Amino acid sequence: MKIFNTACASAATLLVLGTALSAPAHADFTGVWAPANWTVVTTGNIAGGAPGQAQFTNATLTLTGGDAPGAAPPYCQGGVFADLASPCSLSVTIAVGAPYSFKWAYTSNDADGPPGDIFGYLVDGVVTALSDPGGAVSQSGQVTVQANSSFGWFLNCTDCGGGAAVVRISDFAAVPEPATIALVLAAGTVAWLGRRRR
Q1: Strands in 38-190 per DSSP E
Q2: Where exactly are the structural domains of the chain?
Q3: Which of 17, 28, 81, 139 has its CA 20 to 30 A from that of 62?
Q4: pLDDT tens digits for 171-186?
Q5: What does the pLDDT read at residue 18?
Q6: pTM
């Protein structure tokens, strides 16, 4: 009877542990990931405007790219249309490493379409574009990435004229790594088998 009870307890522990590890460690912009803990930076000079803005709720982040309506080109000083290296950009970052997951929905209001506004993510300071310059005016997707020290998003308005892009980020979560889940479950199984043999 003791062996049966020990086996049941071990199995229950594994089930609870597996359930806890398979669920997101954190979801949405609360706690450590609350809006106040993110760094919002705009770079570059736009004629008569700012390189963009970030608006948080507990569940979403909305990025609006820079735009200079009514100004004469060049709208972004030193900016080059469709060039990710253009200096006028908005970034939102947090100095917390973790596996991250999120959904994104991008809409370009630029008269020249998506090439004028490039959206993507930042992992440990490295930029990766998500929006497709040759794609549709509205684009979306879901991404999971591993960040060691910092994570965030950027929206570069490149020339910053003709209309701003808007990006809505939702279903944001810091998720456990599958390898960690597998390792913990394997260790639990070995412990259970050891108890069962006794």
Answers
A1: 39-43, 52-56, 61-65, 89-94, 98-108, 118-123, 126-129, 138-147, 151-156, 165-174
A2: 1-24+176-198, 25-175
A3: 81
A4: 999 976 554 444 434 5
A5: 41
A6: 0.77
